[in-house]
Amino acid sequence: MSECPICDGVGLVRVVNEAGKWVSRGCECQRMERETRRVDAAQVPHRYRECTLDAYEIYHGADRSLSEALLTARRFVEEYPGDTAGKGLLFVGSIGVGKTHLAVGVLQRLIRERGVKGLFCDYRELLKNIQNSYNPQVSTTELDLLKPVFAAEVLVLDDLGAQKPNEWVWDTVALILNTRYNDKQTTIITTNYQDLPAGNGAKTDAERAAREPTLGDRIGDRMLSRIAEMCIQVKMTGKDFRQTGVKRARFG
């Protein structure tokens, strides 16, 4: 137990109950330590530990979608789990608008206020670790890596689509999303790619090369359709916060 100025590290405080008698109760420091342990278990990177919903700043003149995204995130926490019907959130927007900040803010609040068992996963890092597990010199197996992903009550899958697509990537994404969908687990996703099907109307190779890639291009249309069933879409439009002076995530 860390030293606490209230309980002197004992973990208990003496208070007067409703009957007017002195009783011992757990100190507030115990609750805070339990919350910290749950956040640690969720593997929220230290660079995102300060990403709370209360700390999400919207710069002057920002697109209305950012304030609406914050409102949706707050409402989601308030309604979880009874009124969210097992659905998660899909934050879609360009780099630097605060998608990861809001996703982590939701996760941390659910962990601290609802006691959920959550997990943060960087999409590209997860796939890299799974591929590395195929090396016979590595003791960690694919199942070891995926078991906590499947089991998390709330999973944040950050930067979906960042990995260059191929058949293996599509199969792995399908395994993760379908397993969580079938088990009715809540998944919160962020992506820089527009929530549009592969091709997005392009008919020729030249047209496909000229347009921006879509989420359908990166994960396949079948999984794009699955996400539509799993998540409420939250579109965020705006400038990179690094260009506005707003510090949504304090790096370092």
CATH architecture of the largest domain: 3-Layer(aba) Sandwich
Helix fraction by DSSP (H/I, runs of at least 4): 40-55%
Written as H for each helix and E for each strand, in order along the chain, the element string is EEHHEHEHHEHEHHHE
CATH superfamily of the largest domain: P-loop containing nucleotide triphosphate hydrolases
Please describe what this structure looks like:
This protein is of the alpha/beta class. The protein has 2 domains: 1-40, no CATH class; 42-243, Rossmann fold (3-Layer(aba) Sandwich). It contains 9 helices and 7 strands; from the N terminus they run E-E-H-H-E-H-E-H-H-E-H-E-H-H-H-E. A 5-stranded parallel beta sheet has the order 4-5-6-3-7, sandwiched between helices. It has a two-stranded antiparallel sheet with strand order 1-2. Helix 6 packs parallel to helix 9. The longest helix has 16 residues, at 64-79. It starts with 11 loop residues before the first strand and ends in a 16-residue tail after the last strand.
